């Protein structure tokens, strides 16, 4: 008997905010540094110290809330959440309990071109704990992270598969990166997930929730949910009951495991933080934050597809990194000015662009998404950190467009531009890589190749058409890759006819 089980999933996301200093003190927000170097009496939890709210953290938290379409509340307050654990020197964490920064919010995801909106419960601010490092010799503690600013985002339980969960957190991360509140680096733990999973029969009351804690990658989130759904289904099919508990995730064996049972809800003895007054946020402030929110990935995705006629796959790569899509658009804008300035083009700016759009966009994307991504990945940097400007890259594209450069020489020049920031025309001249299209010059090389490769010539003349490509390759080699392959092909065809 197979029952029609439906999984119900909610996710809590902790996001580190990118600020200069910590949430309630002046210590630097830099948990990657030498351990225990960015600390002060406040974040060490010394008695008698007074926390002061970091305005930058508040600004970024409000930006995050707006980017997630959440409603910033006119008043909110901080609370002390008590629990005893070595990573919490004060014995409590400053968080927000019943009056969070923002309520509601939503994220739209697209699952196999089916759109779905997933709503949010709330967005609140809190401080991070210290980091425990479990070494062979014992557990070490790094307090650099203690007191750094976090936001916690809680989704409504509207997610129904592991895949949907992954799409949801991916879109959420991208929105927060676009809003410039975090770098969203998963390896550095800048985004961390907890998830609630239950399984029930459709139309029947919800099942018992199991919480899975500390998931640090999209993959582990997806795998843990998948595993948990199967585990719970199996228990229900055997007619047994699900235990309400908190579970961990073992990435190596791909299973969740019991951490503690939750039959008695943990009592954190929340009470209002007496040292920080409640916040009053005016409508003017909220409106200003809303106005400052830049274009979000969803809108950019749609606009790029419409404006440039780019495929969904290419657009996805472009918007994955905001600076990559910005670099693309700056390059295109340079190329449009260049097209307008040519004597050979006529008509309005729009007419000229429409006539060339397809060819130019294809050329730019071809180089950007293959060669340049290869270079940035190899150098472990973003395109913004390379020495190459969009102006130089646009000029590089014009050289290809005008056939002054062929693609093998192009690769050499692009690598040099990427490394040193050299102007492509200058680089082409210095390296003597300008494409040779001069028929008289090329005929000489063709003639030499025909004399050297008599066997191949015979093969071609007996009908082995692919022999032509071999001969083109020989001429390219002779000219050190500078020949225009099309011109070479034309000359060969004529001579062999
Ligand atoms: Zn401090």
UniProtKB/TrEMBL annotation:
The keyword Endoplasmic reticulum does not apply. It catalyses: L-glutamyl-tRNA(Gln) + L-glutamine + ATP + H2O = L-glutaminyl-tRNA(Gln) + L-glutamate + ADP + phosphate + H(+); L-aspartyl-tRNA(Asn) + L-glutamine + ATP + H2O = L-asparaginyl-tRNA(Asn) + L-glutamate + ADP + phosphate + 2 H(+). The keyword Kinase does not apply. Keywords: ATP-binding, Ligase, Nucleotide-binding, Protein biosynthesis. It comes from the Bacteria. InterPro entries: Asn/Gln-tRNA_amidoTrfase_suB/E, Asn/Gln-tRNA_Trfase_suB/E_cat, Asn/Gln_amidotransferase, Asn/Gln_tRNA_amidoTrase-B-like, GatB, GatB_C_1, GatB_Yqey_C_2, Gln-tRNA_amidoTrfase_suB_CS. Pfam families: GatB_N, GatB_Yqey. SMART domains: GatB_Yqey (SM00845). GO terms for biological process: glutaminyl-tRNAGln biosynthesis via transamidation; translation. Residues 326-496 form the Asn/Gln amidotransferase domain. It is an enzyme of class 6 (ligase). One of its GO terms (molecular function) is ATP binding. Its EC number is 6.3.5.-. PROSITE patterns: GATB (PS01234). Belongs to the GatB/GatE family. GatB subfamily. Allows the formation of correctly charged Asn-tRNA(Asn) or Gln-tRNA(Gln) through the transamidation of misacylated Asp-tRNA(Asn) or Glu-tRNA(Gln) in organisms which lack either or both of asparaginyl-tRNA or glutaminyl-tRNA synthetases. The reaction takes place in the presence of glutamine and ATP through an activated phospho-Asp-tRNA(Asn) or phospho-Glu-tRNA(Gln). Heterotrimer of A, B and C subunits. This is Aspartyl/glutamyl-tRNA(Asn/Gln) amidotransferase subunit B. It comes from Candidatus Kerfeldbacteria bacterium RIFCSPHIGHO2_02_FULL_42_14.
């Amino acid at each position: 008997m197979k029952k029609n089980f439906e999984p119900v999933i909610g996710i809590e996301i902790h996001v580190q905010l990118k600020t200069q200093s910590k949430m309630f003190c002046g210590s630097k927000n830099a948990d990657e540094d030498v351990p225990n170097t960015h600390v002060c009496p406040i974040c060490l939890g010394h008695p008698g110290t007074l926390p002061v709210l970091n305005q930058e953290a508040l600004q970024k938290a409000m930006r995050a809330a707006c980017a997630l379409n959440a409603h910033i509340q006119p008043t909110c307050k901080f609370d002390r959440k008590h629990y005893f654990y070595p990573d919490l020197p004060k014995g409590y964490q400053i968080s927000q309990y019943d009056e969070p920064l923002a309520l509601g919010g939503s994220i739209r995801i697209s699952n196999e071109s089916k759109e779905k909106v997933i709503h949010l419960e709330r967005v609140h601010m809190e401080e991070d704990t210290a980091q425990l490092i479990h070494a062979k010799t014992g557990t070490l503690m790094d307090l650099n992270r203690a007191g750094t600013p976090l936001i916690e985002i809680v989704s409504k339980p509207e997610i129904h598969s592991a895949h949907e969960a992954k799409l949801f957190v991916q879109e959420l991360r991208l929105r927060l990166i676009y809003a410039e509140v975090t770098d969203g680096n998963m390896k550095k733990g800048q985004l961390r997930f907890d998830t609630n999973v239950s399984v029930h029969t459709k139309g029947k009351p919800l099942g018992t929730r199991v919480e899975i804690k500390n998931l640090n990658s999209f993959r582990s989130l997806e795998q843990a949910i998948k595993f948990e759904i199967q585990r719970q289904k199996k228990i229900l099919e055997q007619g047994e009951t699900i235990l309400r508990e908190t579970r961990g995730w073992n990435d190596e064996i791909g299973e969740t495991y019991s951490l503690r049972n939750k039959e008695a809800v943990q009592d954190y003895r929340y009470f209002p933080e007496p040292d920080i007054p409640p916040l009053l946020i005016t409508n003017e402030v909220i409106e200003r934050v809303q106005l400052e929110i830049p274009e979000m990935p969803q809108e950019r995705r749609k606009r790029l597809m419409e404006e440039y006629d780019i495929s969904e796959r290419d657009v996805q790569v472009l918007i994955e990194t905001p600076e990559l899509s910005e670099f693309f658009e700056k390059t295109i804008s340079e190329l449009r000015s260049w097209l307008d300035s040519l004597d050979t083009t006529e008509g309005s700016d729009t007419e000229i662009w429409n006539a060339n759009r397809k060819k130019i966009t294809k050329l730019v994307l071809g180089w950007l998404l293959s060669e340049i991504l290869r270079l940035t990945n190899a150098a472990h940097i973003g395109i913004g950190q390379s020495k190459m400007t969009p102006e130089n890259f646009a000029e590089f594209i014009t050289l290809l467009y005008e056939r002054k450069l062929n693609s093998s020489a192009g690769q050499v020049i692009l690598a040099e531009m990427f490394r040193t920031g050299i102007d492509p025309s200058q680089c082409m001249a210095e390296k003597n890589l300008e494409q040779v299209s001069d028929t008289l010059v090329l005929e000489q090389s063709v003639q030499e190749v025909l004399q050297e490769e008599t066997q191949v010539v015979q093969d071609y003349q007996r009908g082995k058409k692919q022999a032509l490509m071999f001969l083109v390759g020989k001429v390219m080699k002779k000219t050190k890759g500078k020949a225009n392959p099309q011109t070479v092909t034309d000359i060969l065809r004529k001579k062999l006819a």
